[in-house]
Amino acid sequence: MEELDVDPPVTIIPGVDSKKRHMGFDWGPEELLVYETCYENKRRAERGIGCPFIRIVQRDEDIYSPVLRKLFNESHSIFVGLQKSEEELPSKSRKSQLVRVSKNYRSVIRACMEEMHQLAVSTRDASLTTQYTSQVSVLSAMELIWNLCEVLFIEVATAGSLLLHLLDWVQLHVCEVDNMAQEVLNSESPTKHDKYWNVITSYVLQGRMDEARQMLAKEAIATATSRSMCRILDGLMKKMPVFNPGGTQILTEYELKWQHWHEECERYVQDGTFASSSHLESICKILLGDEAALLKQKELLTTWYHFLVSRLLYTHPMVKPAELHVYAQSSLDMFLGGDNSPEPLDNILMAAFEFDILQVIKEFSITSSNWWFVAHLTDLLDHCQLLQSHNLYFGSNMREFLLLEYASGLFAHHSLWQLGVDYFDHCPELGRVYLELHIERIPLNTEKKALKVLRICEQRQMGEQVRSICKSMAMKAVRNNRLGSALSWSIRAKDAAFATLISDRFLKDYCEHGRFSDLDLIDNLGPAMLLSDRLTFLGKYREFHCLYGKKCFSEAAKLLLSLMTARIAPCSFWMTLLMDALPLLEQKQVIFSAEQTYELMRCLEDLTAVTPDVEETDEKRLRDDGDDDETTKVEMLRLALARNLARAIVKEGTLDG
Amino acid sequence: MEKFNAKFVSQKISKSRWRPLPPASLQLPDVFATGSWDNEENKVSIWSIGDFGSLNADGDYEGDHQLLCDIKHNGDVLDMQFLDQERIVTASSSGSVTIFRHHQNNQTLSVNQRWERAHYHSGPDIPSCGSAPCTGIVCNNPEIVSVGEDGRINLFKADSKKILRTIDNADSSTLHAVTFLRTTEIMTVNSIGQLKMWDFRQQGNEPSQIFFLTGEKVPLYCVDRHPNQQHIVATGGQDGMLSIWDVRQGSLPLSLLEAHDAEMWEVHFHPSNPDHLFTCSEDGSLWHWNASSDIAEKPSFLQLAGRRNTTLSRSTLDHSNINQSLMSPWLSSDPAKGHMEITSLLPSQTLSVNSLDILGQCLVCGTDAEAIHVTRQLFA
């Protein structure tokens, strides 16, 4: 076993004083039932009324947020699309495809974040506001991490373009400057606004030179004294070389240009060109990459990773991916200055800068109860062929482990379970087993839901589950006295045993009431009749009644006899069948031929011969009760058979003669 | 492909229906209702697209549909239909039939009338009868007919608390859907592949006619009647097959058309353009079936050279065309002729499209992926 990285968080169960009381629990698929036990405490004085509730403890509460449901649903289709996408594409277009998928995921996170933010703003309930606000911060952290992972692991940006991507990343997530700029521009005299220089500095820190220059131009117009200084700074900003990843420029050429520009900046600082304006001087020092000057802008930088990117921009624009973590670590140390310890988010980002994917996933899993993020990110990184070597000491690999956890969470949800199915489908090793175990436990309150679950099982050839679902639906129908419905369920599952059971119920009902129920079903069984012998008998017996009703006596007689001679009819039903033959025997014209009559007689003798040693005592007792009745029947039958035989022999003899 | 607007709504949609337009109205439909299923708390919701969606220069419909109001619904919404402009009837898995009223002045919904446990199971083993899901309803103001898993048919009249007529044991299996054939006749479909015609003028609980699929008894889940030619009925079933029936003759379907890969949940003829038919399915697809003769007739550019020739052959064709339009393409449609054009309207997805509704140029559908898709330019 690996050691635990952190102590697991403690959840307080309200109403149970854990110091004085004992708690019991039971595991569910994704939840835990917690209750107070009756276990006697030694000290009698402590006795009293305990907590009368059983509580459900859920691990992933995010799944119950209505806004996040949109995230789950939208990302589900992206996930399915990604699994279906072709792995065979040439590596370049494959990469752009994966980047597109990653961007889709991020835009879904953003949309959710915006909606959550709207809710937080619009609601008046203070507790809801805090809840929404914390969700917004979780979502924005997710997007921040995802975006960084996209740059580092999926884009696999190389020296030069790496920094451009990191700049985009910072610009996207630290956007206070835009609000500030709006505020400044809307004021009467922008250059007198106390945030004016903050705006310019912020633009410079994010490498947004054009915007910074536009802003600076206002100062040049407004203040004549600093006009020449502004022009020089403007010139520096304009001249700053920017790497063009698509162009033909060679990295060394760019480096040379940049070095040249850097020296020029340095010259101006040493000359004291901007000495008369502290603002301009500090901006020039930033351009020079002066760490002290950068750190002075802590409030504008807001985070250490912004500091890192700004620092790289003006000191090492050609930073290579492998060098990144050294700068990241020193930036973090410098920025926090030993006052604060890094927060979980800092650790996660640091792990990303160290290119330690496993650590990113692990840190996030520890700090958040949300499986969505790690499952989807891991899956995407796995599609980038980045996780092959990471095998766990339990279950399958990490991708599958996380997907299984996420999907199990979905299955625990009242209505998101349908999404879980596709996730299980794409877990090659254990997905099927998980699905089998989960799908059987879905409560089926309507047939429509049962049909949907059945379709899922049938598409995946899960015969066992199909039978079990159909059987439970059939049982439910039987309990509700809906035999027709029950039969159609067992026909769907091809469940012969259950079909026999239901057929017996039909026959019993017939014996009791003297007529069939559910004729629309029995009359139209078709090939389904062959499912079980009893069902075949039921169908054929009903056919006999139809023939009899249509006065097709000889066909009816033939069918009746064949039911017994072919041993389709259950023995217990033979007496009923023979009694059904009675009116046919008593018809004016001869229906049973001599040979058929002999067979009928043999059936009767077989039946009476068996009767004395009936094995089941219940049946025997019943027979004893109705003994008189039975003997009368047998006698009546014998008489009718004998008379029919006589008439048949005479008739056949006459015809032959 | 038509431009669809999708919105995720955090509930699985089981039914979606356009609010009918007032007679002689020229405006586009802009309000629809949806019902949810399988949620801890299910809802009936009213949505609007009119005030918020704007048409841009190209005539494309932009903007989301917005929630106007919603109300809690006890149980899954298994079927739903507008009774008139203001009232919506729903069928619930709790066995009740409810009429909701949509108050348009203050945008609220309220319960107008409810028949609790209109569908129930009864039997020797269950002395206190358990409710049975009501699976389908159909309205013909003021009459409402409901069917359920208990195989029962109920006839209600809006504004009357009493159930006017009940046919117990109308079916030995589950009745899945119902539609009006004429004012006193209805058609039901059940889970053993039968289509039954009932006449409320007849007493007793026997159908006036039974139609059935041969071979495998494939359950039928939806039924719709041709809006002008009342003898043509379309049904869809478990195997995703579309069946067209002529209820004047025979007891077997007129044609069986291979369609979806899984359960067909709804089938609808276009109400004013009935040569077009729409189906949706558990396999996540939404299809447009175009049987209108103009596809076959559409002059292609290649034929322009021999125009005279074409017109000649047209005039000879006209006779058969007249016959055909009397006959309706659905009856003459022989799969071999191939006069049917089928278009898939939604991008492929894995989760079921549960419901669809069409009115004029507009189509709305709801899915298990918790999305509502709307288009306002169906035949663009």
UniProtKB/TrEMBL annotation, chain A:
GO terms classed as biological process: mRNA export from nucleus; positive regulation of DNA-templated transcription; protein import into nucleus
Keyword Nucleus belongs to the record: yes
GO cellular component, one term: nuclear pore outer ring
Pfam families noted in UniProt: Nucleopor_Nup85
Molecular function terms from GO: structural constituent of nuclear pore
Subcellular location as annotated: Nucleus, Nuclear pore complex
Entry annotated with the keyword Transport: yes
Keyword annotations of the record: Membrane, mRNA transport, Nuclear pore complex, Nucleus, Protein transport, Translocation, Transport
InterPro entries linked: Nucleoporin_Nup85
Family under the similarity heading: Belongs to the nucleoporin Nup85 family.
Oligomer status and interactors: Component of the nuclear pore complex (NPC).
Function: Functions as a component of the nuclear pore complex (NPC).
Record PANTHER family: FROUNT PROTEIN-RELATED (PTHR13373), NUCLEAR PORE COMPLEX PROTEIN NUP85 (PTHR13373:SF21)
Identification of the protein by name: Nuclear pore complex protein Nup85
Organism: Geotrypetes seraphini
Lineage of the organism: Eukaryota, Metazoa, Chordata, Craniata, Vertebrata
TrEMBL record, chain B:
WD repeats: 213-255, 257-293
Locations listed in the record: Nucleus
Cellular component GO terms, alphabetical: nuclear pore outer ring
Chief subcellular location: nucleus
Keyword Zinc found: no
InterPro entries, per the entry: WD40/YVTN_repeat-like_dom_sf, WD40_repeat_CS, WD40_repeat_dom_sf, WD40_rpt
Chain coiled-coil ranges: none
SUPFAM superfamilies: WD40 repeat-like
Domain of life: Eukaryota
Entry keyword Acetylation: no
Alphabetic keyword roster: Nucleus, Repeat, WD repeat
Pfam families: WD40
PROSITE patterns: WD_REPEATS_1, WD_REPEATS_2
The protein, known as: Nucleoporin Nup43 isoform X1
